[in-house]
Amino acid sequence: MNFTMPLFSVAMPEIILLMLTGLILVYDVCVPKRYRAFTYALVQLSLLATLWIVSVQYRDFSSAIVTFSGNYVLDKLALLTKLFVLAISMFAFVYAQDYIRERQIDRSDYYILGLLAVLGMLVMSSGYTLLTIYLGLELLSMPLYAMVAMEKNSNAAVEAAMKYFVMGAMASGLLLYGISLMYGATGVIGIHEIAQVLGHVTLTQNSLAVLGLVFILAGLIFKLGAVPFHMWVPDVYQGAPTSVTLFIASAPKIAALTITFRILVEALPGLTIQWDHVLVVVAVLSMFAGNLLAIAQTNIKRMLAYSSIAHMGYALLGLIAGPYDPQGYSAAMFYISTYVLVAAAAFAIIAILSKKGTEFEELEDYQGLNARNPWLAFMMLLLMFSMAGVPPTVGFFAKLGLLEALVRAHYVWLAALALLFAIVGAYYYLRVIKLMYFEEPKDEWVGTHIDIRWGLLTAVSVNSVAALMLGLFPSGFIDMCRVSFG
Fold first, then answer.
1. Helices 374-388 and 327-353 sit at what angle, rounded to 10 degrees?
2. Cα separation of 447 and 130, whole Å?
């Protein structure tokens, strides 16, 4: 057996982030408590350094590189996913800073666990064997379980963490069992090798591979938070601290879509008919259940949780259309990326408005927000319009791209159904806008003004205005997504 030295340079983002995380951990343990306020700055510098390395790799990219004995791939899709993950994670940590300080959540533990979760997402993005993808997924999931329970005095947070952990462990078991069945059917675990072997298998081997596909799909659908493995989403989103909900609802969704593409499209093209039909059912049920159940919610975090289930259904439409129209894959990436951008800002506004002892989570809390802080209300209006798909926000073009891909793939009935669900979903987004602009503030808040730290207001403004600017000038972002699936 010949040993080939891995190309460590292509994995430099993961290596640098791991080293810097270790150094921050040592720094935090060794320095006096009064100096630990610098941990946040070190965390952001670590993410910025990693983002710069990925940006250089993206700029200088020429062709895909597979190294580490076939376990790691560097291609446009991996680089684009890493860019999105790192950028969104930086925003998420900015939004979390004040929230965790006011609630006396351990800042060091929060940031270290967050960095490890980001590292897991980077590994997932470049994983090129089922085992590497699984390891990255677990490296993401384990810190998230702990982060949900970090507000120790909150019974809701502890309960949410237990539900998330138990159901996440079950989903990981299903995924791992599916991987073992796939290995039994093919004798390999590499993405490219599985695709080659499945093109020349016997009927028995193919049946075993289909059985493995069922379990793999179950694990992936859970990580995406789509029906029927969506039960954890509302409880975790509502029970977790808002800063953690923000993190869970954003960057991990992009990484989850990337590994879904790797496994289904790149590794299992021979089973396209099987997984495509399953995804049709999952997408329709997710859009149906997510939009209808969101209407009945009075808690905005729970409403956005059901909304995220519906949005995952929309994102899957791109994967459904992809085998018949390759633009469907880029439409799915464009949709999930823009949704994550908008969701992060929406949860950030909830975190900004929530003060210690007063969680701004009920819909009635948003009555008359325009009278108390017009700019923040306008930011929330942009975000709600984008989620609803109202032009000229980016959400409109994201949905339009998916519908066009479905029509070109001859899924006209599915496009019509998706459009119908989008109209239904617009109701609960417009309800938030109605409360902010056409209702009077609650009695105890009449005449009060919401003061926000300048840096935090700048970050959420940039994040929110991006939803409008990307809608007015979407071509550059769309082209990035198209090139990644070229």
1. 150
2. 57
Domain-embedded: residue 2: no
Q: What is the mean pLDDT of each run of 10 residues along the chain (486 residues)?
A: 78 96 90 79 95 95 91 95 96 91 87 96 96 96 94 89 94 95 94 90 81 95 92 93 93 95 94 94 96 94 96 96 93 96 94 80 89 91 95 94 96 96 95 92 65 85 93 91 86
Domain that holds residue 295: 8-484
Overall number of domains in the chain: 1
Question: H or E segment at 37?
Answer: none
The answer to the question of residue 15 being in a domain is yes
Q: What is the pTM of this model?
A: 0.95
For residue 377, being part of any structural domain is answered with yes
Residue 81 is assigned to a structural domain of this protein = yes
